């Protein structure tokens, strides 16, 4: 499995997480019972499907290993395995956070995810 998984979230929610030292999830995460993540290969499609046209987003790169057994790989969109975290995300597991701006065509502009 990849070393990094990615969370897309509103900047306001991420600011709250930084202040608390833990990210408990967005409303969709609470509804589903786990924190949704994507791999580098899945992140762009996740943004297009679930965050289309939304500005003021953050892309959070998270180290997978420290999440341990709470990070599960489960089938979702088209049978692909997606990382789902069944615990709050400690901010200490985050490698980096970057803005996820909208480009002129309305699609999000991603940094290099390698």
UniProtKB/TrEMBL annotation:
InterPro entries: DUF952. It comes from the Bacteria. Gene3D superfamilies: Protein of unknown function DUF952. SUPFAM superfamilies: ADP-ribosylation (SSF56399). PANTHER family: BLR1139 PROTEIN (PTHR34129), DUF952 DOMAIN-CONTAINING PROTEIN (PTHR34129:SF1). This is DUF952 domain-containing protein. It comes from Xanthobacter dioxanivorans. The lineage of its organism: Bacteria, Pseudomonadati, Pseudomonadota, Alphaproteobacteria, Hyphomicrobiales.
